[in-house]
Amino acid sequence: MGSCVAKQGLSPGVKKLVVDIFKEIDTDGSKSIDIHETLKFWHDNFAKINTRAIFEAVDIDKNEKIDEKEWIAFWTKVKKSGHSENDIKDELLNLRNRGSWVQFKGIRSMNSKKLD
């Protein structure tokens, strides 16, 4: 029963925002984000580039779906890599406004470490 949120985990407020943004992208409520949803989410704002980038960064098991656990694990890893919660909030709000996906410094992809 390992938890990757234990040390330096996200504060409740930031975690809520992380989950809220996830739900905004997960338009069919399936508890996972697929490529069609990200293309729809970004629409005309470099949708294909942003979709490729988000799946490279967050889709741990490469099943072309991002579940809530992968999404929260990604943002937790961003914080653990030294980014502040303010940076994370800014990026989440940028996403909410259909801004481009940002490649965080020190975060290549989630594939370097498998989660249980």
UniProtKB/TrEMBL annotation:
SMART domains from the UniProt entry: EFh
InterPro entries reported for this sequence: EF-hand-dom_pair, EF_hand_dom
The organism's place on the tree of life at top rank: Eukaryota
Residue ranges occupied by any EF-hand domain in the UniProt entry: 46-81
Transmembrane portions of the chain: none
An example Gene Ontology molecular-function term: calcium ion binding
Protein name: EF-hand domain-containing protein
